[in-house]
Amino acid sequence: MKILYIFAHPEPKSFNSAMKEAALETLNEQGHEVKLSDLFSTGFKPVLDRHDFLQPKRTDVFNPFMEQMNASKNGTFSTDIMNEMEKVTWADMLIFQFPIYFTGFPSMMKGWIDRVFAAGFAFNPATGNMYETGLLKGKKAMLVMTAGADEALYSKEGAHGDINELLRYITHCTFEYTGLEVLHSHIVFGAGKMSEERARSEISSYMDRLRSLAQHE
Amino acid sequence: MKILYIFAHPEPKSFNSAMKEAALETLNEQGHEVKLSDLFSTGFKPVLDRHDFLQPKRTDVFNPFMEQMNASKNGTFSTDIMNEMEKVTWADMLIFQFPIYFTGFPSMMKGWIDRVFAAGFAFNPATGNMYETGLLKGKKAMLVMTAGADEALYSKEGAHGDINELLRYITHCTFEYTGLEVLHSHIVFGAGKMSEERARSEISSYMDRLRSLAQHE
Question: Global pTM?
Answer without folding.
Answer: 0.97
